[in-house]
Amino acid sequence: MIDVSRLTDLASRALGGSVLFANDDSFADVHALIAPGPAVHDPAAFAPRGKVYDGWETRRRREPGDDVALIRLGVPGVVRAVDVDTSFFVGNHPPAASVAIATVLGYPDADELLGARWATVIDHGPLTGGGSNLVEVGSAQLATHVRLSIHPDGGVARLRVFGDVVPDPRRLGGRVDLAALELGGAVDGCSNMFYASPANALAPGRAQVMSDGWETARRRDDGNDWLTVRLAAPGALEHIVIDTTRFVHNAPGWARVTDAETGAELLPRTRLVPDTEHRFRAVPAAAATRVRLDIYPDGGISRLRLLGTVDPAQRAAVTARWTRTLPADVAAAVDPTEFFG
Q: Which of 142-151, 162-171, 211-220, 311-320 has the lowest mean pLDDT?
């Protein structure tokens, strides 16, 4: 089975995912489907409509048909696996589910999506109640929206759409955060993730709690912790932001940033202070593809921002990669003058 730990949940509300339509959510609110955390459950919790569930639950059908939800992905990408998580739904979970993807650029409304062209990636996959139902997907098409159909009704706690972010070249013009998860940056190596995933450091916004960041175990040797980031596109870095917000007594003492391929120093070893957003000017260097952050000796950071501009020599490659994932009719309608505006 595919390892989803290094993939992005493209649908997560933490990345801007949104539920645009559901034909029914009589018992439990469909918007919980894409909540970033795991479902929770209180066996004693009841409300006027019945048992309180953390997830999407529809009424019992007495007529033919299925229930449907449409989700706009927070970050478009190529879907590698889907998890229809039925945690705490036992006896009231759907027997099966189907998942389809669509590529609709811009900001379509629910009516436009209902009439869109959908490609089925999971067709009536069987579901078990009370836990994960992870299915690997083989599509190479860029997905901007997902349709979840449950057959015929019931409850789903979470929908996780794991995949690879494909950078949209139209969003990479000017000075941008080349490490940003929503633009296609990704952590591809890490020394330790004992308390929290390093991918959190590339998430949008400011950390709200300590667990929103990356935190390592306490070191008991003379080494140090590190992570490496594959940039959304190769580029020249201008500024580096290392944010220790929420880390009050467990922030690193120092940090250093280098080009992970060449070893060129982009930020020399520099002192950090707790609970602070640090902004540094990057040492001028050639365009980087991968960047390494070393923290000394251990601890946690909430965010890492690598601000710069895309290498002009790489623009055609970035555009070509994105275009290859588009359906032919969508690619033909894209205005090339929008790229790198």
A: 311-320
Cβ distance 60 to 104 under 8 Å?
A: no
Cβ-proximal residues to 37 (8 Å cutoff; 6+ apart), any chain: none
pTM score of the predicted model:
0.92
Q: Are 234 and 314 in contact (CB under 8 A)?
A: yes
Which of 67, 68, 70, 73 shows the shortest CA–CA distance to 13? 73
90-122, pLDDT tens digit by residue? 999 999 999 999 999 999 999 999 999 999 999
Measured CA to CA, the distance from residue 102 to residue 91 in angstroms comes to 31
Instruction: Tell me the residue type at 6.
Output: R
Cross-strand pairs, 230: 186, 290
The contacts of residue 260 (CB under 8 Å, 6+ apart) are 189, 228, 229, 288, 289, 290, 291, 292
DSSP string covering 242-308: EE-TT-SSS--SEEEEEETTT--EEEEEEE--TT-EEEEEPPP-S-EEEEEEEEES--EESEEEEEE
